[in-house]
Protein: Cellulase family glycosylhydrolase
Organism: Pedobacter panaciterrae
Amino acid sequence: MFQKLTLVRLFFIIAVSVLYSTSGLAQGFLRADGKKIVNEKGENVLLRGVGLGGWMLQEGYMLKINKEGQQYRIRERIEELMGAKQTQEFYDLWLANHTRKIDVDSMKAWGFNSIRLPMHYNLYTLPIEKESVKGQNTWLDKGFAMTDSLLSWCKANQMYLILDLHAAPGGQGNDLNISDRDPSKPSLWDSPANQEKTIALWRKLAERYVNEPWIGAYDIINEPNWGFEDLAKDKNGINEKKNEPLKKLMVDITKAIREVDKKHIIIIEGNGWGNNYNGILPPWDNNMVLSFHKYWSYNDQASAENMIKTRDQYNIPVWLGETGENSNVWFTEAIRLFETNNIGWAWWPLKKVGANNPMEIKSNLNYNDVVSYINGNGNKPKESNVYSGLMELATYARLENTIIHYDVIDAMIRQPFSAETKPFKKHIIGKTTTVNAVDYDLGRNGAAYFDKDTADYHVSTGKYTAGNKGRIYRNDGVDIAKDSAKYESYYVNNIESGEWLQYTVDLEKKGIYTIKLNVASDNTKGRISLASDGALIAKEITVSNTGGLTTFKTIEIKNIPLKAGKQSIKVLADTGYFNFNYLQFIRQM
């Protein structure tokens, strides 16, 4: 009897838990409500998301490949180096490792509430050239199974999944890499068969996910960029006035979706990489959202005016469907701008071989040789080395093997609406303690550090600026270089006059300290001052010529009284022209 009651009680608990998890916490389908995106309760939903670029669709730059960066060409060249069988092994491992439940769990924990899935059509259906019967659609299990798994992880974390057709059949633009387009074959716009397959794919997806409330929306064509009226002079459709073929296809896709799914938001994107809506509006569906994309421009109110004006004119929500690829300063500015205007966003991408995203996939020596060869800068590597380098790269794509850039996450989630600084690492100062120069505080420019070159605004200025010129270790404006003579050793370089770095330290004891500054210089112009909690403790210390900008020597500043406990130590370059490796605290008494 006791066992029976225990089992009944257990089943009751499980049933209640399931009911609570599936119904009590669910917010229902998202929908457009005037200029807002709302949930089933009518509550405003501000989407804070990340795009999974590089998973189903690799763009060359994400792999450091800058010559013919379409995925199909990358794959062809890998096959030339190590054969079809081993190439398939690499791609199977890449798809298995790149995005897993741990990635979605982590995104939720970091503060994101949505994911944009860039889909490659060839994981869902065959290309028209490979169909055995003209006009037939052969459905492939791989893409649907991957999407199902991702959706299950999103549901478990109460995150919205937005399906984005990133590579449409034939390719939707003349920016070849983003849609893996083969220019020797008919494009999406040149081929009615490719258009019909695109429509059929969306109908199939809508049939499959019609009753899934954690599917946030269908983003039906990513970044169309095609000159319909003047392909020769306007190949990416920036100046297109009518956009008739684009509108017709999006209307046809919408019709096919609505035949089977009346519930989900449909997201549309204009020509010219998502921003040219000439001739496309007004909207033709009452549950529609406009997506704009934004890169490398100023983050002032004027830069959002076209989006806001369009939103107001047509009484329709706007979503920043893709943005990123810049510095932390730019990220913070952009997110503050858009959230202030009630515009949600999806950052690009979650991870790649590069530092300006939440996760960095580490490279390896064998893979570097592959990249060098593909880019035309090196000798042909041995087949065994190619295989080893690529399989290692795919293994490094697993979250636990990546470098997680918490400075990027902090810039996106906390810093847009907080000027508070936080320690990048714990610096407990004992008898003798070294603090690396690159481990300055987390926070905004002007709060945790000050740098004069902080982001890339070349779309607005016509001039490329790098932010962190080294593009390594961190993604702030501070320039960082790697010490080639030491393993995983970094230092701050290109220091300009007036720039500074702040370090939150925790002194175990009050006392008199010597502070050593490890610096490198090829002149005698440099001057450094130190402050603790805003009060000067050392003024305009000369940085001598050490024999070169990579020859580091130590400056000693003695007899500095410091209190116990937490305090902010600021290292100020009164005059620049030096590099900075570390500061060391030595308690004298």
Observations:
- Residues 2-24 form the longest helix (23 residues).
- Residues 1-24 have pLDDT under 50 and may be disordered.
- The chain has two domains: 17-55+99-361+397-411, 419-587.
